Amino acid sequence: MNDFWIILTGVLVAVNCGLLGAFLILRKMSMVGDAISHAVLPGIVIAYLVADSRNGVVMLIGAAGFGLLTTFLIEWFYKRARIQADASIGITFTWLFAIGVILVSAFTGNVDLDQECVLYGDIAYVPFDLLFWNDQTFGPTPIWLQSGNLILILATIFIGYRGLFITSFDPGFATGLGIRTGAWHYALMGAVSLTVVLSFNAVGAILVVAFLVVPPAAAYLISKKLPTLLWLTVLFGILSAVSGFYLAVWWQASISGSMAVAAGFLFLVVFILSKLINVRHKKHESIRFSESHIIAPTP
Amino acid sequence: MNSNLLWVLVGCALIGAGASLVGSFAYLRKKSLVGDAVAHALLPGVALSFLIFEEKSLWVLFPGALIAGWLSLLSIEGITRYSKIKSDTAIAIVLSVFFAVGIVLLTHIQQGNYGNQSGLDSFLFGKAAAMLPRDISLFITVDLVLIAAIWLFYPYLKLYSFDEAFARSVGLPAKRLEFLISTLTVLAIATGIQAVGVVLMAALIITPAAAARFYTKRLSSMLGLAMAFGVVSGVGGVFISYLAPSMPTGPWIVVLLSFMAIFTFIFAPHRGVYQRYMSQVRHRRKMNDENVLKLLYHLDEANPGLNYSSTDLSAKRYFESGPLQETLKRLSQNGLLKSINSRYKLSETGHHEAMRVVRLHRLWELYLNVRMNIADDHVHNDAEAIEHIITPELEEALLKELGYPALDPHSSIIPGVKPALP
């Protein structure tokens, strides 16, 4: 049963992150996801200190606040201080993450959080973090949180599909139509921050990036339409979470790390297969092309 | 000061110097985040070398780290070249997957039965205090290699970083230069993980270069400044964790560096946010001043000797009311206007200054009309903009070019032009 809970958590995290990550990739903002996943750390630590426990609500507010602060800072560095986009991302997240690590080590006594948990999470403890209500248990808390987040993300995508679609593919055209590109941008960033925070305990700061980017990137290689991209992302996310778990058991290693490795492996396979198919396709095309040219000129 | 502290100080300074050197080239090539990916990607190399040699001396782990860093650069290159995936996504993929492999290996090592594996995870956040004299010799070697390579190939690297397309077109060996830059990057990053760890290494690459760029336009001084930033923050971080032993060195180096950089972004001369804002304000003031003076001059031309209130001025030309009041006040204080019961007229010096502005305006109109063949009813708006920025030298050149003219295209007098001596 414990294994089941861990796998389910992994699957939920992978699906949640992947669905948002697909939009990040389309907007060429993959590294912003990376930045947010690092930069929420001080928010989480401050929330721990303020609330004196792993109080979910305070933690969410703290981290989501820092997530939005990150996007604001990146924008400010880029637009006001005129620093290159790349560098403004790098400066922002390293700065905030360093502050977070300093806070962790300054308040080690008060904070139930260590540096390793920050980096690769502790998904193995998910089954013991049970939700109690009137002396009855309702399964692990992370499952409930992740499921709630999944519903939220799905609702956002269903309701805001057209807005997200247009602003992701052609922001200029969207602005021309009178769609508020900035509002969608910050809505997406808010959702990413929220998801990163919720997934943080499970998979750690850096591996969130693997779940945000790798499954949707694999799906992006072989899809030409947004719905295909999203469905394939979900499929690849589930596959990497499940296979990653068994990889970890077999190899006695970090579970979330193995899930990310599985995602990377999946990406590699899709990458090579898509190349092979493409090459065959092109050969076929060129044969047809040359045949038609040989035949055409004959009277 | 004990000798151990000295070693750590020297080590962190060397690391800061090396990283900021390669970071400057990365910044100019707009590839700052590649350094982040390389730093993360070193982890599996380190872990794998440990698995093979069961030894955690930096000299043993270093080659593994180099190979892993190299592989990560190749992967980013391969993904962007052979698929439709953009470079930012490729960087994120390589970064997270390589790092995950590293974590898997590291946790596998921790579960297994390997002697003296403790401390291997200090590569995550760095452990500057664990530096040994033999590590320092490695850092010195790497820094010497970096400096020698940059010094030897300086002109080529400079050209390649500033304008890659041009460098290719004049026949520089792009592939070899790319190889050189990548090798130097991986080398510098691989030494740095000892001090700040793989996660924060990106800061040592990106931040000093971005800050140094604010002070200079020359590559050589940018390299020097970036190195100074790197060294100062390295030394500062070590001192903080020496004075407060519970404090981690690496994150403090990064925080110090970030504060220096953010201070630079705001207060740097010329390019800083504050300076640019102030020069905007100054320019706006100058334009308002000159526009008010010019308006009063025009009014004087029509009916000499009258006073005007601010409402009269607003009726003649659109001014925002707040700035107009400020402008009138400022001009009165500087003695350019005489004010009598909040009605204004030009003073002696004000008249002189107003003549200058009107002269520039009309000279430019004439120049556009005569030399550029622009119709005389199309020249006003252009002159309205340029009259505020024509320098005395340009004015002299215009006068000479137009032969010290007396009238503009609208047959108004160009004030204050002394006819040329024959």
Provide the fold topology:
The complex is a heterodimer of chains A (299) and B (422).
Chain A: H1 2-26, H2 30-51, H3 56-79, H4 85-106, H5 115-120, E1 130-133, E2 136-140, H6 141-159, H7 161-169, H8 171-177, H9 181-203, H10 205-222, H11 226-251, H12 255-295
Antiparallel strand pairs in A: 1-2
Chain B: H1 3-28, H2 32-53, H3 58-82, H4 87-111, H5 122-125, H6 133-152, H7 154-162, H8 164-169, H9 174-212, H10 219-243, H11 249-267, H12 273-302, H13 310-316, H14 321-333, E1 337-340, E2 343-346, H15 348-371, H16 380-386, H17 392-402
Antiparallel strand pairs in B: 1-2
Commentary on this structure:
The complex is a heterodimer of chains A (299) and B (422). Chain A has 299 residues and is mainly α. Chain A has one domain: Orthogonal Bundle (ABC transporter involved in vitamin B12 uptake, BtuC). Helices cover 81% and strands 3% of the residues of chain A. Chain A contains twelve helices and two strands, in the order H-H-H-H-H-E-E-H-H-H-H-H-H-H. Chain A has helices at residues 2-26, 30-51, 56-79, 85-106, 115-120, 141-159, 161-169, 171-177, 181-203, 205-222, 226-251, 255-295; strands at residues 130-133, 136-140. Chain A starts with a helix and ends with a helix. The relative contact order of chain A is 0.15. The mean pLDDT of chain A is 84. Chain B has 422 residues and is mainly α. Chain B folds into two domains: 3-268, ABC transporter involved in vitamin B12 uptake, BtuC (Orthogonal Bundle); 275-346, Orthogonal Bundle (Arc Repressor Mutant, subunit A). Helix content of chain B is 74%, strand content 2%. In chain B, strand 1 (337-340) and strand 2 (343-346) form a beta hairpin. In chain B, helix 2 (32-53) packs parallel to helix 4, helix 9 crosses helix 10 (219-243) and helix 9 crosses helix 11. The longest helix of chain B is centred in the middle third of the chain and has 39 residues, at 174-212. The model of chain B has no long low-confidence stretch (mean pLDDT 89). Classes of the chains: A mainly alpha (299), B mainly alpha (422). The interface between A and B is large, with 61 and 60 residues.
